[in-house]
Amino acid sequence: MKYSPLVERIGGDGSNAWEIHYRGMRRVRAGEDVIMLSIGDPDFDTPAPVVAAAKQALDRGRTHYPEIVGELPLRQAIADYHLKTNGQDAQPDQIVVLAGAQCALFAAAMCVLAPGDEVIALEPMYVTYEAVVGATGADLKMVPLRAERGFHLDPADLEAAIGPRTRAIMISSPNNPTGAVMTRAETEAIAAIARAHDLWVLSDEVYASLVFTDDRVSIASLPGMAERTATVSSLSKSHAMTGWRVGWVVGPVELARHVAKLALCMLYGSPPFVQDAALAALTDPVAIAEVARLHDTIRARRDLVFARLNQVPRLALHRPEGSMFMLLDVRQTGLSAFAFADRLLAEEAVAVLPGDAFGPNAEGHVRISLGLDASLLETACARMAAFVGRLP
Ligand SMILES: Cc1ncc(COP(=O)(O)O)c(C=O)c1O
């Protein structure tokens, strides 16, 4: 049977990188002591009041068709959270609740990009962006975030990439996989370029609760940006709720209306009991305190791993300013990122992701996740040091 050309455009998923991850998972399932540093899923449990709210909602029969865009109290709670986290004063009619930041990014991209458009993405970038842009039919143009700049943008690179077909810039801060957080100056430079060339900004802020620097600003909060920015985020990372699939897009009212129509024909809303749980996540004091605890824990793990691995000759580290990831530059070992990850798994039972899947500027780097507890991270660091120590 014949399929749409779409299936080709959504085909790329960095599968080479995930091969190591899946191999590690198979060994874990077989009962082996493999430390999985390849997962971007916090090891925390979903806060108890959130689970309780979902159970109560199920008992109350909150199992029928939902309000497509999300119920008003939830969208109001998201608006309050967005103001607190990102400094943009948005109204509920600017918000659509979707199945995670992934779905929100997809929906926003579908509503602003068209075949023939060009969208600029800063790489290294999250592995799904290529398929998201591919689905819209637009062309992806990558602008480098170079390792030697700590994966921060040189605005001249962005300016040079703008062409007559450019419609949007996709950004992610804190960044997965680099852990870099865009500075205010960087963000202002992107905003100035977007305004000057009348571009959309698709801003993935799924790690906004995991920022370890003071020098961050959310682009939609800058002058003249709210009307041209779609900010996507979710409860996945902030509240350890990856499996609940709760995210949202915040944008201009008109964009929200278009996204709502797409949600109607594609998703038909988020289940009411999940919406109740999401409302608890954003309003219950215990759940809110958990967000701070998760932040502090990940930051402490970052400091621990940085201190341990920074002593290992031939590993060069990028100290994350946010997110739950760290990139290790392994080029001085003489191994490619894939060979490093492959052998580390085989010889020391530690799974990491080769950076290549995230873009050319992450070549020679491996990504490790801080989503495991400190003692496992310590063991993983010791195993990595032993592995590197044995290399010729
Ligand atoms: C940068 C980035 N964006 C989006 C997502 C998807 O998040 P969600 O679970 O909210 O769909 C992830 C998940 O790892 C991510 O790392």
Number of domains: 2
- The CATH superfamily of the largest domain is known as Type I PLP-dependent aspartate aminotransferase-like (Major domain)
| CATH structural architecture of the largest domain | 3-Layer(aba) Sandwich
Mean pLDDT: 96
Distinct small-molecule ligands in the complex: pyridoxal-5'-phosphate
User: Within the largest sheet, what's the order of strands?
Assistant: 2-8-7-6-5-3-4
Give the CA-CA distance, first to last residue.
Answer: 52 Å
Low-confidence spans? none
Examine the coordinates and then state which fold CATH places here, giving the name of the CATH topology of the largest domain.
Answer: Aspartate Aminotransferase, domain 2
State the helical fraction: 40-55%
Count of strand segments:
13
The best one-word shape is globular
CATH classification class of the largest domain: Alpha Beta
Strand content: 5-15%
Briefly note the structural class of the backbone: alpha/beta
- The Rg value, from CA coordinates, equals 21 Å
Figure out the total of helices: 13
What's the short version?
Helix content is 43%, strand content 14%. The protein has helices at residues 6-9, 15-29, 48-59, 72-86, 100-112, 129-136, 155-161, 184-196, 253-266, 272-283, 285-309, 337-348, 374-390, and strands at 35-36, 95-98, 118-123, 139-144, 166-172, 200-204, 229-234, 247-250, 316-317, 325-329, 350-351, 353-354, 365-369. The strands form three sheets. Strands 2-8-7-6-5-3-4 form a seven-stranded mixed β-sheet, sandwiched between helices. The protein has a four-stranded antiparallel β-sheet with strand order 9-10-13-12. Strands 1-11 form a two-stranded parallel ribbon.
